[in-house]
Amino acid sequence: MATTAQVTGAWILIALYMGVILYFVFKGARKTKSMADYAVGSIMFSPLVVALSLAASMTSAATFVINPGFIANFGISGVISYGFVLPFAALVSLAVLTKSFRKYGQSVKALTLAQWVGERYKSRGYALFMGFLSLLLITFIVLIAVAITQVLSKALNADPLIVLVLVVVFIFGYMMFGGANSMVYTNTIQAGIMVVVAVILLTSGYEHFSNGIGQFFRKLAAIDPALVRPTNPSSPLFRDFYEIIFAQLVVGMAIVVQPHIITKSLLLRSERDVNRFLVYAIAAEVLFFMVVIAGLYARLTFPDLQFNGVALRNDAIIPTYVTYIFSNSSLGVIVGLLVVLGLLSAGISTLEGLIQSVSTTITSDLINPLTGNYFSNGTSLVRMNKLVIIVLAIITILLSWQQIVHPKLSVGIFAQNGVYAYFASAFVPVIFGIFNKSMRASVAFAGSLIAFAVHFAVYYLMPYLVSDVGMTFGFFTKYLEGPVRNPAIASSAAVTLSTISVLIMIVMNKLFTPKTAQP
């Protein structure tokens, strides 16, 4: 439980934070006159500002709150997976894709990833399909809402349901107005706070290294030897190197095609800014991804993962750790409040990007075309977008509360299942659309359908065949067993099989398509 000083300080800090956010929302809203302004902004920003905005959007509450909980539960195997392998693949993918996507995105004036796909393949149907797929990103919105609720309810000693409702109403409320113009300002401030907090969290367990890193590992091993092994066969996420390395490499490469990440480069002023943008963004991201190590400190602080005799759920481990570890002195309380602010920033920054991208996609790529472009007027589209955000807020509250009360290990599993299905389906059209100029819409669409089907078949159908029908799938069977399954397994299989299928279709087309007669 937070002390009285912590609760009072948290309220003051939150009030100040809300004031700053609302100031920049008002500033950005004055320049938001159309859906284009809302989606990609009407202001061109510096590379550093856009890079920090990307870093804040790309690194969410999952990185600062949820994933360290997994590391507290399962140890070094999780650090390898979430702290090294996934970031490496994601940042390499970001560097490779950004320039090409920006160049094509600028030429077609795309506001969303669905529009980008539709313009690239000259297919309204494909754009509509990608628009519907974007609804899966609501699961990620739920993850962040849950994480913010966990942090604030611990810091304020408040009822989680009340906190959840107030958080959603406030954030979704101001996102109805500013859009990209205000979001870049707020993300930059949030990223700055996150840099400071990342350093604090990474150094918060320094006393555990007083006798060397060897002693640090021995302390973990004394709690559970599996915590210091590179694989953790008893975990549902880090059982072997296929799960820790291969699956995360594939997921990391594909994760960049999420709309709130890959479209960020469209905010840059010119091509000359791209390299500096990437250097700043990657440097910040490396620091942010390393925060998962704090999960090991939390496990040493709560060896049996209990606090005051109550078992800690995965998503509450880091909020409880922060409240506890920084409550011993006045300085500690101040530092702890700063950390709470950083955890909130990690969540809110990504939540803003998701609300903006998902609402824009629903409004521009689903509602407008399905109503025969009835809302073709810019003002009417903006109004419809506000209504969409209200509906998203209601859905978020309902799903988030269900995940707080009845999580399956963690809300992270729920979110990964939806988000990973989305970017697995988007991987083929984006990658081949960028690097294969002659890519056919029919082939790309087939790749998306294969990825979508494979992901959910691996996650839902194959486990049923194993448990109820008694089928086996060789070495793959162990990933299909148990009450908690790893969405990265389903997603990596989906990306791999869809990519191979598309490559085969491309080769077959070349072999069996008659060559044009030479004059």
Tell me about this structure.
The chain is mainly alpha-helical and 519 residues long. It contains 21 helices and two strands. The mean pLDDT is 86. Strand 1 and strand 2 (310-311) form a beta hairpin. It has a two-stranded antiparallel ribbon. The chain has helices at 4-29, 35-40, 47-58, 61-74, 76-108, 113-121, 124-133, 138-156, 160-174, 180-203, 213-223, 241-255, 259-262, 274-289, 294-301, 317-325, 330-370, 378-405, 411-435, 441-469, 487-512; strands spanning 306-307, 310-311.
Topology (SSEs and partners):
Blueprint: H1 4-29, H2 35-40, H3 47-58, H4 61-74, H5 76-108, H6 113-121, H7 124-133, H8 138-156, H9 160-174, H10 180-203, H11 213-223, H12 241-255, H13 259-262, H14 274-289, H15 294-301, E1 306-307, E2 310-311, H16 317-325, H17 330-370, H18 378-405, H19 411-435, H20 441-469, H21 487-512
Antiparallel strand pairs: 1-2
Which structural category do the helix and sheet elements fall into? mainly alpha
- What's the number of helices? 21
User: Strand order within the widest sheet?
Assistant: 1-2
Mean pLDDT: 86
Beta strands, count: 2
What would CATH call the homologous superfamily? Answer: Sodium/glucose cotransporter
Distance between the termini: 82 Å
Question: Can you summarize the main beta sheet?
Answer: 2 strands, antiparallel
Strand content: under 5%
Point out poorly predicted stretches. none
Element order: H for helix, E for strand: HHHHHHHHHHHHHHHEEHHHHHH
